[in-house]
Amino acid sequence: MTAIKTTCAYCGVGCGIRATVTGDRQVRIEGDPDHPANRGKLCSKGTHLGETVGLEGRLLTPMIGKRRASWDKALDLVAKRFRDTIAQHGPDSVAFYVSGQLLTEDYYLANKLMKGFIGSANIDTNSRLCMSSAVAGHTRAFGEDIVPATYEDIDAADLIVLVGSNTAWCHPIIYQRIRARCDAGAKLVVIDPRRTETAEQADLHLALRPGSDVALMNGALAWARAAGVVDADFLTASVTTPEDFWTTLDEGSDLWSVAKTCDVAPADLRRFYELFAATPRTVTLFSQGINQSTTGTDQVNAILNLHLATGRIGKPGAAPFSITGQPNAMGGREVGGLASTLAAHMDFAPENRARVQRFWAAPTIAPKPGLKAVDLFRELGQGRIKALWIMATNPAVSMPDAGAVREALAACPFVVVSDVIAETDSSAHAHVRLPAAAWGEKDGTVTNSDRTISRQRALFPPPGDAKPDWWIIKEVGRRMGWKTAFAYDRPAEIWREHCRLSHYENDGSRLFALPGQSSAGNADYDAMQPFRWGGTPFADGHFPTADGRARLVTVTQKPLPAPLRDWPLTLNTGRYRDHWHTMTRTGLAPKLARHREEPLVEVHPDDATRLNLTDGGLARVGTPQGTSLYRVSVSTGQRPGELFVPIHWTDRTATGGRTGLLPRPLTDPYSGQPGFKRTPASIAAVATR
Ligand code: SF4
């Protein structure tokens, strides 16, 4: 039995796995000691992947309505309905909603079909909900969506700052790396409204008021400037500073004002500011607590400003580091699989549109950015999107205001869902369901948080009629009339084309480029070892902007709204350690269910006493969007006035805990990322224990 090297199906850490097939759909999973992301370690989710490869709940044949259908019939129907809709209502009347679970080759083809052949940019992804504020922030500051850090920077840092990230639960292998560095003497500061497991182990925890991150980061920069650690030479040589930058920054950025805005003890804030000012080798990691906000892009830029102004970028152990949620969120960014990007880190500038159209030999090219996720589902609800293809994701649970998303799906004239799961909350509304190959059955590549590209390799043949996503997409493209442009026999061909586009007519102004891979043979592709693109970005002080300079972005703390009379509390949402998204995979692993058996609403003891809530009792959480039932957990880890609930449970997994029904569909103006962290809410006891 030979071990096959592949990559974990879950998070953006991108851990390497050695998988040994031991029987009929039986596999032994071990960490790959040679993979640079994890060096042989795995967290609980990765360790139990072998429990999730059975056929329970799988979709094994194409379905038209409730009837089984042949691939020919199902694909012909999908192609015809999309073609007819476009002919009648134009290219912007159709949309794809895809996923960071797709492999890069799948993502590339979906993007090519929509933007180059259908001629619309209405392809967005569930990564919009995860890291699009980081993309917008990077682009504003650096000119291109570049993550400047690597995991080795963690190993070299003397101070590690985690902002809005429960890393111990959500990126456990990165957290193990952080712990190892702390054991060697580095300090750990956690900035998070909740006292999470990560915060428990920090040298300093700042439990700031939700949404006050810009004030806190601007205060850190004002302090650093007063302490003389702004890098004037770097700013002069490599960074454009807006005229109003420092005067705006100084307003309200003194220690006492920031402490009041953030509701943290001045002494704790001072400790962080002094530590930051004194530690050149600082890595600041941030995740959903920063990104999933209606001010997410400004929050990202406040962090990037801090690192740019102090010259803590492009050097070992010194960088801002956005960590991605999904296994291939980064690969999706590379192919341009967001409605707001065109392809290969290019935007919709006329020269880019012409360049990509030439490369694809496409009949048309999307003229402008398309609908971002929340807008896409809003337009669906208003009847302007008339045909939608959902690939490998479950928006009826994961989108904010999920109740309205369900109504929109139910009203849409034609919905296609390609997924490995027979029935999801979203596919319940599908006219056609297409059986996709699952993790362990398909070949391709993924890119993790630190730009390392790894292979996913098939362990088993796809069961029943299941097919890889790239195959399904190319068959629809061919049946829509573009036979030559979608004539692929294997993912390696798509990979080579993607790599060619990454450096096609690139004059060096884009950092993302994979020239060495364009000529990789099939055997090279099969044998591909993990590799990172981009080297150490910005080490030479050059940035991919027109003038080669980075940009400080003037950002100010927005006023934080007063509590509403009917919804006086603030609802935060997030993940549990052993579950993933809407549990379609982790729900199959019994051992993973033991960590948290049901969805809990965490409540501060003062609120519990005031509202007659008891630990273990039941309570109904309400927001302007809807209500859902949870078991109560009274916890001093919560700030008074704030609630926390997990995102994973669905109609199909529980009668309560349907968190998707609760957040408002409000988004960041730059990134379009919805805010999941600060929803006005109420809570009422249903039963006490
Ligand atoms: Fe998989 Fe993420 Fe765990 Fe690594 S840290 S084993 S990628 S879930």
UniProtKB/TrEMBL annotation:
GO terms for molecular function: 4 iron, 4 sulfur cluster binding; metal ion binding; molybdopterin cofactor binding; oxidoreductase activity. The keyword Phosphoprotein does not apply. One of its GO terms (biological process) is cellular respiration. It comes from the Bacteria. The keyword RNA-binding does not apply. Its cofactor is [4Fe-4S] cluster; Mo-bis(molybdopterin guanine dinucleotide). Its EC number is 1.7.99.4. Keywords: 4Fe-4S, Iron, Iron-sulfur, Metal-binding, Molybdenum, Nitrate assimilation, Oxidoreductase. Residues 1-57 form the 4Fe-4S Mo/W bis-MGD-type domain. GO terms for cellular component: membrane; oxidoreductase complex. Belongs to the prokaryotic molybdopterin-containing oxidoreductase family. NasA/NapA/NarB subfamily. This is Assimilatory nitrate reductase catalytic subunit. It comes from Sphingomonas pseudosanguinis.
